[in-house]
Amino acid sequence: MLYLSRSIILILSFSVFACYNAPQRSGDNISDDDLIGEEANWSQEGDFEEKVSTYEDDDRDIWQKPERVIDLMGPLEGKTVVDIGAGSGYFAFRCVPDAEKVIAVDIDPDFVAFLENKKSLLPQNQQEKFEVRLASPDDPMLDDDEVDAVLLVNTYVYIENRVEYFRALKPKIRDNGKIVIIEFKMKSIPNGPPPEEKIAMHQVEHELQQAGYDLISTDDQTLDYQYIITVQL
Questions:
Q1: How far apart are CA 163 and CA 18, in angstroms?
Q2: Considering the entire predicted model, what is its pTM?
Q3: Which end of the chain is more exposed for a tag (fewer CB within 10 A), N or C?
């Protein structure tokens, strides 16, 4: 079973990379059905292969607007970026060409193995600046002053003791660093996890304030199904 699991991971990795250079479709005149993609399931529940299929669906590029999200972290040249809850590496691998270093963090050993296999398909110079870390639910396994930008996409809601988590995260981020948090909107939308796996934007903002952050910006317009919270240190 272990051998079969690793074989699946490798097959999925090659499939994902084969899609990287596919042309993106215009967002004009696209229906919600087109935006969703087929059988999208953003719940934390579900098996590993189903999650990878959802995270790496071609249609995600349309509504996720990854380039715009990455731009929120500012120029990446000379910076270390950490993607907490990296999953399949949808964002982490997109940051590699420009960043000084990318750290992909996840608490799921299956995704850590997937990321390691996907990393092996990168050019050698990019492999050298991409690191995968298995973290614990209450610790992203970062050193003090190690990172310049922190990205959490569809991850914040699943963190327990969030105020303590983000209070402990603060020393890991260098001066003038930035945090970008993206979660699915609470309102009725045709995509995303069930209501019990969502969190209101105002609650995230309040918890971040409790954790000691004050330069907080919110945006629920840029993305179709998600809101964005940015924190400037």
A1: 39
A2: 0.85
A3: N
